[in-house]
Specification:
Layout: H1 21-25, E1 34-35, H2 48-66, H3 76-88, E2 98-101, H4 103-115, E3 121-125, H5 130-137, E4 142-146, E5 148-149, E6 152-153, H6 155-167, E7 172-177, H7 191-204, E8 207-211, E9 236-241, E10 253-256, H8 259-270, H9 278-289, H10 292-318, E11 324-325, E12 333-337, H11 344-355, E13 357-358, E14 360-361, E15 374-378, H12 384-405
Parallel strand pairs: 1-13, 3-4, 3-7, 7-8, 8-9
Antiparallel strand pairs: 2-10, 5-6, 9-10, 11-12, 12-15, 14-15
Helix pairs in contact: 2-9, 3-9, 4-5, 4-8, 6-7, 10-12, 11-12
Bound molecules: pyridoxal-5'-phosphate.
Pyridoxal-5'-phosphate binds at residues 39, 103-105, 129, 131, 178, 183, 211, 213, 241, 243, 248, 253.
């Protein structure tokens, strides 16, 4: 078997699989390198005592069900509880509108699996969530990116993009959006623009895929209404997760959609995982019943407000003139933009080896590989002093290289 070359057996599809730069960077954590890379939740946010009690209770009281196979769509009681939870967010749903998934990442994959044919036009914000690009790319859609400003996706640019697609004899099938505290930019789509996005979806008859991991701890006032809560015709597919609210290791996410789409997603999921982990479904069910999920929100807001503010203060203090950044209303990320002649991809090895700081180069989040002068910084994980130090190190790197290329 020594000289077996696996390459000659690989499918054409497998050549579309690309390593995630974020996952690659995780390897550097703990080697003196301060990571502003992955969006890893602060473990101080995990409700350890309550989860321990819940686990014991679930095993003791529901062991024979919680360790058994369950329906692909999810444990019925959990689907009901998630429908109720969604109702508290203004989203009308019944259990039949809910599919429980293994994190929202699986939800994105399943949606792409059942909706995308090769060369279908799919629009997203540019930049957008790397994991969505990874999931979508296997199905070979044509990805079209639309730029953002401080108020999120520019709706005039969206309309111009749609018109261009239509003029070329194609149609837009779906727009994938992260309207609240977007990954990677931290930007939030403003209320009027949300309405306009829905109008455009009606007018040009495309679906919307709303990805919403971060709205639960929106920091600046009233959380904006989700697209799904304003959806009159059932064209919004809403995807969310407990990863940032309880713990990502539970791998619990869900989809809210019309029943006929849920039925297709269930069939797709059967061939992939059969079902999500029964034990974790019961844990999430009990956490929802006890009000633990809702009870997490004030703590999360406190943790991430301090973290965001610490990063923003450090950026104000250390960054050289010519570098700009976003001021997010929540989420886990700040997006920085260096002068156009600075190449953040090329600087990453220098950052890791010499300055001992990790960030994610912005080009990986762009559908067209642009944005080489940008980067995503995560404020979610390092201790606060390391956060400040990480920003200071990154600033030193930029100062050195900006003076060199100017
Ligand atoms: C926008 C977005 N969508 C989906 C995910 C996937 O999260 P999970 O699979 O843990 O629910 C993430 C994780 O960071 C994200 O930022």
């Amino acid at each position: 078997m020594d000289d077996l070359r696996i390459e000659k057996y690989l499918s054409r599809r497998s050549s579309l699989l690309k390593a995630s730069q974020v996952r690659e960077l995780l390897k550097w954590i703990g080697r003196d390198v301060i990571s502003l890379g992955g969006g890893v939740p602060d473990p101080a946010s995990f409700p350890l005592d309550e989860l321990k009690q819940i686990l014991v209770q679930v095993i003791e009281e529901k062991g024979s069900s919680a360790l058994q196979y369950a329906p692909t769509e999810g444990v019925e009681e959990l689907r009901q509880a998630l429908a109720k939870f969604m109702g508290e967010k203004g989203i009308k749903a019944e259990a039949e509108n809910i599919l429980v998934t293994s994190g929202s990442q699986e939800a994105l994959e399943l949606v792409a699996r059942v909706l995308f044919d090769k060369d279908d036009t799919v629009i997203s914000e540019n930049p957008t969530y790397l994991g969505a690009l990874q999931a979508f790319s296997l199905y070979e859609p044509r990805l079209e990116g639309v730029p953002m400003d401080d108020n999120g996706l520019i709706v005039e640019a969206l309309e111009a993009k749609i018109k261009k697609v239509v003029a070329s004899g194609r149609r837009v099938k779906l727009a994938y959006l992260i309207p609240t505290c977007q990954n990677p930019t931290g930007k939030t789509l403003d209320a009027n623009r949300r309405k306009r996005v829905l109008e455009l979806a009606e007018e040009y008859d495309f679906l919307l895929l709303e990805d919403d991991p971060y709205s639960y701890f929106y920091l600046d006032g009233v959380e904006p209404r989700s697209l799904k809560s304003m959806d009159a015709s059932g064209r919004v597919i809403y995807v969310s997760t407990i990863s940032k609210v309880l713990a990502p290791g539970l791998r619990m996410g869900w989809v809210v959609a019309e029943r006929d789409l849920i039925e297709k997603l269930v069939l797709a999921k059967q061939g992939v995982t059969l079902q999500s982990t029964t034990l974790c479904m019961y844990v999430l069910l009990e956490a929802l019943k006890r009000g633990l999920v809702a009870g997490q929100m004030p703590k999360l807001r406190e943790i991430y407000r301090v973290r965001r503010d610490t990063m923003l203060e450090a950026l104000d203090e250390y960054m050289p003139e010519g570098v700009t950044w976003t001021r997010p209303s929540g989420g886990m990320f700040v997006w920085i933009e260096a002068p156009s002649n600075i190449d953040m991809d090329a600087l990453l090895p220098v950052a890791l080896n010499k300055y001992k700081v990790a960030y994610v180069p912005g080009s990986s989040f762009h559908v067209d590989g642009s944005g080489r002068n940008t980067a995503r910084l995560s404020f979610s994980y390092p201790p606060l002093n390391a956060l400040r130090e990480g920003v200071a190190r990154l600033a030193s790197l930029l100062v050195e290289h900006m003076s060199r290329v100017s």
